């Protein structure tokens, strides 16, 4: 007899880059699990050209190991078969998970050549097994054998047969389109709360067992589809979510029409020197978490057509790196945004990585590994940047009290760790950065200052100013042209910003009139004959300066 153990024992057994749902894990503190508190390496644990992964928040909590009195439960015998009808090797199917429908702690039974027996508390369970089967082509398939409702009242025998599983696929109405990658997800209501029970199982050679209708069950697939399944260089990318509620269908093959997708013409820009670009798109599930699959665009500036399933929140990122397309962590700029398209139809994005500036700063306070300070210093109008360190950049973050005494300091611009909450009072945060990136002559210096009050140990959300101005694909404007600059003061939208412009890298500054433009602010500049434009903007509690915000060159005929 093999004793059933807690589901947490499955953590290392089942977790893979594609299949992280086999075992629950505890959630970090609320501040630490915010987007601002996650590093680029956390988001891309396998590299920038692999999946962007965030764990779901709504998963069963980590459980304790069964106590000995569990022997008083109900006897269960489980046998698992692979797609050939044979008991799988233990390495190919190493456990069965039992999710109590009342929401209590899940249990996990370790398989030995497809067999496990032991005792469970009486009740109803969703039962899951992952089964790998060697296929004739040398690959292995992964079957999810799912039973959404199993009553355990008397002695129970259950066969989980992967031969019942059906292949999962997603396709579109384009002759040369092939699935690059994808994953399936199952959510079921446990104890009245929708919980992710299956997450990240790959579509490639992926199978799942159909089910009868079950209230609270949601089966979902996501897929990235490109020309001939290319990871890089495809002129189009389909980001698809296909969802079926209440059951896993008998034929989990989903076909999507292009006319039902949001169609986005995307222009990827540079900062004036050659780069390579690419990125990820991940559904932002209501339960939290997501998997974004990488697709490379190639040399930039570049244009690509991207399709998105409407009605889904998409967590999108894009990255500019060195021309060799290596996408190394310390040689790549990163931005992300969340978008939702209400309905099918055309859209246009021009992702010009300038002007830079800080975005939605927060002071979290803490003494652990989480960042106590999170300021996304390289953000643009279109997307929020990663946290420092940045390619070719150095700098500091300094917190001073009302007397000017240094309370805390960090050797990174916009990022700090181990800053516990200081005594209540008025404080000034100053961030300085110098930057010299091989693929950019822009944003060579940034200087930002915030004045705020600390009252307790709560998170302090600070204002920031975003800039938008029409620029070419290489972040340049025409010499002598009238240039409109739009400003938004995040977290203080009614604060009228004060703007100054410099054309000599900040040696001299000229005030510029700012006017209200709807819910935003605007100013009109006159570009010089050549060189760069630098910006200094102040608003309620914030003073931001960026040297070389954009470049100016002679008019083209």
Describe it:
Residues 1-22 form the signal peptide. Residues 15-37 have a biased composition (Low complexity). Residues 39-60 have a biased composition (Basic and acidic residues). Residues 15-68 are annotated as: Disordered. 1% of the residues lie in helices and 51% in strands. It is mostly beta strands and 557 residues long. It has 4 domains: 4-24 and 59-164, Sandwich (Immunoglobulin-like), CATH 2.60.40; 169-351, no CATH class; 362-459, Immunoglobulin-like (Sandwich); 467-553, Immunoglobulins (Immunoglobulin-like). A hairpin with a 2-residue loop joins β41 and β42 (542-553). It starts with a strand and ends with a strand. The model is unreliable at 1-37 and 64-68 (pLDDT under 50).
Features of this protein?
557 residues; mainly beta; Immunoglobulin-like; nine-stranded mixed β-sheet; seven-stranded mixed β-sheet; 2 helices; 42 strands; 1% helix; signal
């Amino acid at each position: 007899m093999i004793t059933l153990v807690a589901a947490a024992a499955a953590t290392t057994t089942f977790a893979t880059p594609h299949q992280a749902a086999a075992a629950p894990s505890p959630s970090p503190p609320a501040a630490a699990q915010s987007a601002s508190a996650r590093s680029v390496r956390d988001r891309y644990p396998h590299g920038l050209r692999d999946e962007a992964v965030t764990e779901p928040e709504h998963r069963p909590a980590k459980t304790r190991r069964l106590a000995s009195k569990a022997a008083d439960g109900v006897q269960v015998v489980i046998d698992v078969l692979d797609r050939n009808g044979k008991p799988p090797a233990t390495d190919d199917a190493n456990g069965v998970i039992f999710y109590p429908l009342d929401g209590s702690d899940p249990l996990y039974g370790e398989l030995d050549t497809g067999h496990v027996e032991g005792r469970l508390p009486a009740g109803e369970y969703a039962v899951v097994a992952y089964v790998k089967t060697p296929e004739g082509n040398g690959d292995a398939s992964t079957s999810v054998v799912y039973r959404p409702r199993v009553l355990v009242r008397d002695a129970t025998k259950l066969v989980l047969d992967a031969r019942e599983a059906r292949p999962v696929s997603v396709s579109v109405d384009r002759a040369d389109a092939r699935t690059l990658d994808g994953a399936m997800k199952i959510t079921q209501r446990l104890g009245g709360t929708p919980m992710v029970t299956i997450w990240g199982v790959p579509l490639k050679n992926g199978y799942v067992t159909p089910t009868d209708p079950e209230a609270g069950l949601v089966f979902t697939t996501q897929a990235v589809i490109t020309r001939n399944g290319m990871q890089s260089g495809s002129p189009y990318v389909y980001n698809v979510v296909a969802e079926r509620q209440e059951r896993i269908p008998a034929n989990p093959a989903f076909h999507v029409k292009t006319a039902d997708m949001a169609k986005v013409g995307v222009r990827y820009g540079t900062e004036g020197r050659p780069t390579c670009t690419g990125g990820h798109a991940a559904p932002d599930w209501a339960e939290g978490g997501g998997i974004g699959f990488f697709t490379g665009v190639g040399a930039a500036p570049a244009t690509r057509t991207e399709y998105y399933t409407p009605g889904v929140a998409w967590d999108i990122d894009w990255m500019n790196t060195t021309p060799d397309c290596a996408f190394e962590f310390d040689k790549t700029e990163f931005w992300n945004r969340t978008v939702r398209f209400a309905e099918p139809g055309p859209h246009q994005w021009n992702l010009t990585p300038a002007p830079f500036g800080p975005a939605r700063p927060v002071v979290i306070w803490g003494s652990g590994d989480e960042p106590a300070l999170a300021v996304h210093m390289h953000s643009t109008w279109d997307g929020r940047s990663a946290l420092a360190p940045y390619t070719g950049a150095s700098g500091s973050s300094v917190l001073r009290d009302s007397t000017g005494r240094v309370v805390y300091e960090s050797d990174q611009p916009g990022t700090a760790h181990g800053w516990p909450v200081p005594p209540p009072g008025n404080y000034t945060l100053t961030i300085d950065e110098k930057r010299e990136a091989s693929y950019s002559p822009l944003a060579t210096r940034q200087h930002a200052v915030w004045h705020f009050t600390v009252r307790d140990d709560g998170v302090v959300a600070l204002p920031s100013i975003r800039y938008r101005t029409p620029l070419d694909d290489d972040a340049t404007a025409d010499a002598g042209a009238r240039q409109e600059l739009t400003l938004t003061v995040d977290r203080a939208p009614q604060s009228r910003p004060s703007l100054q412009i410099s054309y000599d890298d900040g040696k001299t500054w000229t005030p510029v009139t700012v006017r209200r433009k709807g819910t935003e602010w605007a100013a009109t500049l006159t570009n010089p004959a050549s060189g760069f434009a630098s910006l200094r903007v102040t608003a309620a509690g914030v003073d931001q300066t960026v040297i070389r915000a954009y470049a100016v060159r002679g008019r083209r005929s």
